[in-house]
Every structure is written in structure tokens, then in C-alpha cells.
User: Which sequence fits this backbone?
């Protein structure tokens, strides 16, 4: 017997209602140069404009807003490479909760600084030798705090899915018929949320994940039908997309709803970041630029109708961004 | 007897109709960090998302679209520090017209390159020793081409005013009551257009110009009631805002409709560009950031209600942008 999927369209509509007072309805942007390059309408969902600079606030707020007074007082613990950290920290501050975040010591300085500035306590770990899950779970148990995973949680997935609702509404307002959506994929929470939101209203829309080379666990898993893993020696500049395998909750959703997985190189990501700077005039972080890279390099299968590219986040250190736009990094 | 103003709200509504097939309806963006910093709602009209990366395409297309077949065949000549150049070049290409642009030799490389890439011929001049007006007028006369000034033209002003129409519509959609609009000011075309569009529907909205220090000719002119001039030795990083005095057509409009002129330093502009990078995740050029600088530094008089800040353009060289965001330039 097949298990039901962890999230439904009703959960996402409910999340949209819950996060509306706190979250930003981010713009869907169109650019004539990009359209001409791709030979079709391309709509960019700019999640850099979301509170904390990435989509992660959506899921974090939807999760924490469900806690009762006693749970809120006990606080929240999360682990994150940086964007979920900021999302949780910002949501916790709005809900007057203490927050502790387990973050890799080599996370971008801007992500560490922003998380700290949002009032969270930060515990760092070595990404290559320590288990963030073990550290965070231990902290949560000792404090009686709520542990909020960065993708494998129904409320988190539903929160991310609100971006999918907005995409369909905004595309309709722009007179565009969406044929395809390209979504970056780490653990698969954003993809699962968007796919659930979109497929419920428009089953004909193709959803493609995009991952950095070496972290193509979801692309391989979509082909094999099983959760695949990342090789421990893999490296990428896409610090937001380094999850080691698809989630236990997200993968069944993505296996059911996603058409296929695309893969881009770090150099293609750098080119996409430069294009975003030069032509779109948007700041996009490496992990936020993979779907744009796939579109610019013609990796997405052609469909009649508009393509939507999710620019998922924009938290990048000034020095790293400077090096990339000047071609020295 | 008072002369009638050069542009009416009807001209702007007409321009909106003319440019609709070609121009981008740019987003009005809100940011919670900026709101908290300013203690009020601040809505950002992001003209970097406009075709060619600045508002200038609006006026350029509205002007060139009025020409008949013979005039189009004879081509267009314009002078510009770079954004009007790109706007004219892009509009001319869409309308299948030859374009020649007189540009300062020290214009940002990105503006020269983009103008050339749009198919225009470029004639450079020395900003400090030669007259662009003389060079351009001579070229236009010899070729029988249409000379399109960068601000002192009713169709150009009306085209820029379409940004004002969009601001009021988008602010209403966002549930914001606009109390104040801050607009960068070089020759005053964008201000005159926006002020005409906004005051016709909401006379209570205060319009403030913002200029770089040393180029505060409009601020002084608004106080004296006469067109004032910039000192020849003045310098600023805001290459888009170096017009030597308010326009003959724009100033009477701005004198009638603008509340007052604000002035920001180049260092305040750099801070605003860094804020746009770090928090808004938007690329903004120096001249495009002056209104944001005035808002961040609390220079705008307080009003009950939302403030609108126009981010007028985003064409900045990668090396210059890199130096500013890393604090080395």
C-alpha cells in the first residue's frame, strides 16, 4: 500500500493564510533580454526579496506559528547551512521565541552574521567530520526545545509551497501560461512544496529540479526511484544545496510530481550570477542561481508556454560576489 | 501670463498606452528591514528591471514611436551619459531606426558597451571641455535626423511619467496610502513626469527631488524660483545625475509640483548601494541610489503614510560595484 504524501494543497493554502501577515509576496520578474535569449517567456520568482533574503522564511514561520505558548517558551533548535538558519531566527524573533542554530563553521560570513543579528544563538560544527543532526537533536532534547528540520517537515514543506501558489497567481496576472517550473534542489523541500501547489491546479505543468554537479542525488533518485546519496568528497560553491540525500518526506512527493532532474556546473552557476548582475540587476547567491543557469544554458526541455525560474536566495558574501562579477573568483 | 506646463496627465496616460507593448511594468518592492529602519512603509520602484536597466527607455520609446516612416528612416541622434543612450538605442532598434549617441568618453564602460551592443553608433566627447549639445545638434542637422533630448522634451517627460502611474496603481494594490515620493533628479524629466502623473490623482502626495552634493541645482532652484546652475568643478560618482541645470520644460513643472529638494553625499550613496546589495538584494547604480540614501539617512521630511523611493537605474560597472560592496571604492 502506498503511503499518502506528507503535504496536500490544503496544507499549502492554510500555510499561505498563516504566513501572510509576516511574509513578503515576492515579485515575479520578466526580462526582455532573457526572453530573447531563451526564445520564450521566462518568469523569475525572486525569493531574494523574501524576508531574510531567501524562501526559507516561509516554511520556518509556518512551522513555528503552530507552536503553543509552552512550546514557544522552550524555544527552537535547527541546523542549517545558513538560509534556514536566518528564516528560523527571524520567525522565532517575530514569535518571541529563543532560537539556537547549528551551522557549519565554513558557512558564508553573511549568513552567520545575519543569523546572529536576528538574535539566535549559533553553534558551529565541522561539515566534513561532525553530524549536525546529532548536535542539534542533543541540544533540543536537553532543552525541551522544538527541533525544526530544514526540509523534512510537513509544515516546512507547506510553507515553501506558498511560493508555488504565488507563481501561479502572478503568472496569470502577467498573462502567461506556465508550462514548466525550474526549482533548485537541496533536500527537496522547496520543490516538494511548489510541485504540490502547482500540480493541484495545473497537472500539465512540468516541474524540474536543478542541482549542482556532484550533488545530483535527486536527479539520480528520480531515475532510480530510490533515495540516492552524495559522495562525501563532493564540493560546490552552492553552499545552500549541499544536503547529502533527498528527504524522507520530500522524496516521495518529488518522485510523484517532478518530471526530471537537471544538473549544472559551478562555472555555469557563476555565469548565471553574472547574468543576474549585468542584465537582471538582481543579487543571487550560488545556490539561488542554479535554475537560472539551467535556463541560460538551454538544459531545460523545451515546452510551449512560459518557463518559471525560481531564484531561491540571495545571501552571498560581498567579497565572493565581487570576485564572481569581476571574473576573478 | 503663465505658460501652461509642457505635459499633462492625459499625455502620460497616452504614453502608457504607447509604451505598453515594449516597456516592462517594473515591480514595486517592499522590504521589512527597510520599513523597520525608517519606521514606516517604504515602497521601492525598481527601474533597474526596466528594459535597458533604467527608466530612460520609457521616455525614449514614447518619443520615437511618434515619428513617421520618413523620420524613422532618417534616424535619431541623442546625447547622454549612458542611460538615455541605452534607452534611445533600444527603442530605435525596436522601431528599426538608425541611432547615433553622443556620450562622454568617461561614461561607465557598461553603458558604452550596452549602447553599442544595441546597435547604436557612438560618438564620444570630453565632458569637461566639449559641448555635447553642439556636437549632437550638428550631427542631427547634417543627417536630417531627429534630435531627442534626455529630459527637455514633452514626450520624453510623459514617458517617464508612466512610472508614476504604475507607482500609484501598485501602491494601491499593496494596500499602501502614498504620502511622499522621493525621486532622483538630474535634468528633472523623471521628477516632472512622476509629479504630473501623481499630483493629478493625489494632490496631497509630497514629491521630493534628491540630488548628489555639488549637483543640487534643482534644490537651489526650487528655493530661488529660478533655474540655477552647477559649478563647473563639481564632481560626483552619480554619473547619471550630472546635468548642469534644470530643464527649460522640466523646471516649470517641478517648480509647480515639487515640495522641495534633498541632497546626499557620495558616501551616503555608497552606503545606500551597499544596503541595496546586502538587504534588498538589488543592484543599483550610484545615480539610482540617491533617493534610497536620503531615506536611509532620515533626510526626508516625515509624513503619515507610505514613502515611495524610486530606484531609477542599475547600470554600474562590475569593478565599481565590487569596490563599493567590499568597501574598497
Assistant:
Amino acid at each position: 500500500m502506498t503511503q499518502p504524501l506528507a503535504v496536500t494543497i490544503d496544507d499549502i493554502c492554510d500555510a499561505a493564510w498563516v504566513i501572510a501577515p509576516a511574509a513578503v509576496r515576492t515579485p515575479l520578474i520578466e526580462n526582455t533580454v532573457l526572453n530573447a535569449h531563451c526564445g520564450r517567456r521566462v518568469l523569475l520568482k525572486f525569493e531574494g526579496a523574501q524576508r531574510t533574503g531567501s524562501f526559507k522564511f516561509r516554511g520556518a514561520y509556518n512551522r513555528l506559528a503552530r507552536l503553543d505558548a509552552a512550546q514557544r517558551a522552550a524555544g527552537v533548535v535547527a541546523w542549517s547551512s545558513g538560509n534556514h538558519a536566518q528564516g528560523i531566527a527571524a520567525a522565532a524573533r517575530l514569535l518571541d521565541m529563543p532560537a539556537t542554530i547549528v551551522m557549519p563553521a565554513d558557512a558564508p560570513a553573511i549568513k552567520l552574521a545575519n543569523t546572529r543579528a536576528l538574535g539566535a544563538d549559533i553553534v558551529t560544527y565541522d561539515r566534513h567530520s561532525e553530524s549536525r543532526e546529532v548536535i542539534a537533536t542533543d541540544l533540543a532534547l536537553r532543552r525541551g526545545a522544538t527541533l525544526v528540520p530544514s526540509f523534512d517537515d510537513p509544515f516546512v514543506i507547506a510553507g515553501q509551497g506558498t511560493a508555488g501558489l504565488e507563481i501561479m497567481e502572478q503568472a496569470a496576472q502577467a498573462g502567461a501560461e506556465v508550462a514548466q517550473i525550474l526549482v533548485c534542489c537541496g533536500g527537496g523541500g522547496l520543490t516538494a512544496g511548489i510541485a504540490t501547489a502547482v500540480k493541484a491546479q495545473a497537472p500539465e505543468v512540468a516541474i524540474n529540479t536543478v542541482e549542482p554537479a556532484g550533488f545530483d542525488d535527486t536527479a539520480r533518485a528520480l531515475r532510480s526511484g530510490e533515495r540516492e546519496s552524495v559522495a562525501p568528497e563532493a564540493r560546490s560553491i552552492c553552499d545552500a544545496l549541499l544536503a547529502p540525500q533527498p528527504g524522507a518526506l520530500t522524496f516521495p512527493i518529488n518522485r510523484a510530481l517532478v518530471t526530471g532532474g537537471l544538473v549544472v556546473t559551478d562555472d555555469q552557476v557563476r555565469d548565471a550570477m553574472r547574468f543576474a548582475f549585468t542584465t537582471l540587476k538582481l543579487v543571487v547567491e550560488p545556490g539561488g542561481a542554479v535554475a537560472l543557469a539551467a535556463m541560460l544554458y538551454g538544459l531545460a526541455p523545451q515546452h510551449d508556454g512560459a518557463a518559471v525560474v525560481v531564484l531561491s536566495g540571495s545571501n552571498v558574501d560581498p567579497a565572493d560576489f565581487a570576485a564572481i562579477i569581476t571574473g576573478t573568483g
User: Anything to note?
Assistant: Chain A has 14 helices and ten strands.
